[in-house]
């Protein structure tokens, strides 16, 4: 990073740190309300997992000016697709779908095969890149703030997740309003508020992504152990929330 870039980023980084401190003392509704009042386009990206459903419920219930988007990768579980429509109906909101480009899918299939992600980490990253990272870039176009459902308890790789941080790759504020929530608090909120959730959660899938890349977890395994289960790296991610991986995938 050059000196000029370092100076340019000091402002957003300090802003994120100040916001992080403010969010720490608020409940979820207060956190979302504060973020939505800061100005600029605010986007929440949901994978329709249980924590994301909690955030969507609060956005819809309080009619907050936050755009809700999902990455409809083309390989999602049928249960996930059905939940998109159910959630829209229950909260009278629009969940904007962002899909991969057909040309990217065709190029990937020609190089790796449609299911080539099982064969190498490179191929899996390339698949995540065209099905998730490129659609995410479109979803966040023009956004000032990106809201996610990241929690510290999801994996060791996310244990230090702040409430707010500066995303230098995408040049925006990234807000994680559920960072300090544990899974029991999530489940309690869902039960108390009648939040619709993916039925796969009851079948041993605490973390749900694309169908070919997700399995149920075994007793005692971490929440995200079922994602890209054939790989050995315990910190594996798709690149959405890890700057180094995002940059590497984009370079491919």
From TrEMBL:
Looking up CDD domains in the UniProt record yields: PAPS_reductase
Per the database record, which ranges form the Phosphoadenosine phosphosulphate reductase domain? 42-216
Q: Tell me where in or outside the cell this protein is found.
A: Cytoplasm
Which molecular-function annotations from GO does this UniProt entry contain? phosphoadenylyl-sulfate reductase (thioredoxin) activity
* InterPro entries reported in the protein's UniProt record: APS_reductase, PAPS/APS_Rdtase, PAPS_reduct_dom, Rossmann-like_a/b/a_fold
Record note on cofactor: Binds 1 [4Fe-4S] cluster per subunit.
For activity, the cofactor(s) needed are: [4Fe-4S] cluster
Function summary: Catalyzes the formation of sulfite from adenosine 5'-phosphosulfate (APS) using thioredoxin as an electron donor.
PANTHER family in alphabetical order: 5'-ADENYLYLSULFATE REDUCTASE 1, CHLOROPLASTIC, 5'-ADENYLYLSULFATE REDUCTASE 3, CHLOROPLASTIC
The name of this protein is Adenosine 5'-phosphosulfate reductase
Say which species the protein is native to.
Rhizobium beringeri
């Amino acid at each position: 990073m050059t000196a000029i870039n370092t100076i340019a980023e000091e402002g957003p980084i300090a802003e994120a740190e100040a916001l992080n401190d403010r969010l720490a003392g608020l409940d979820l509704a207060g956190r979302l309300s504060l973020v939505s009042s800061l100005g600029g386009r605010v986007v929440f990206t949901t994978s329709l997992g249980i924590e994301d459903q909690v955030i969507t419920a609060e956005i819809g219930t309080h009619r907050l000016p936050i755009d809700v988007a999902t990455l409809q990768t083309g390989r999602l579980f049928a249960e996930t697709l059905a939940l998109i429509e159910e959630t829209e109906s229950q909260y009278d909101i629009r969940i904007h779908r962002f899909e991969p480009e057909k040309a990217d899918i065709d190029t990937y299939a020609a190089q790796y095969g449609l299911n080539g992600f099982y064969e190498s980490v490179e191929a899996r990253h390339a698949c995540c890149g065209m099905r998730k990272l490129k659609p995410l870039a479109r979803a966040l176009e023009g956004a000032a703030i990106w809201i996610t459902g990241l929690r510290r308890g999801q994996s060791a790789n996310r244990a230090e997740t702040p409430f707010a941080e500066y995303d230098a790759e995408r040049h925006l504020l990234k807000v994680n309003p559920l960072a300090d929530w544990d899974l029991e608090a999530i489940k309690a909120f869902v039960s108390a508020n009648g939040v619709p959730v993916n039925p796969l959660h009851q079948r041993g899938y605490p973390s749900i992504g694309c169908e070919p890349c997700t399995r149920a977890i075994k007793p005692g395994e971490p929440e995200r152990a079922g994602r890209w289960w054939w790989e050995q790296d315990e910190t594996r991610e798709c690149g959405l929330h890890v700057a180094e991986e995002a940059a590497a995938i984009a370079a491919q």
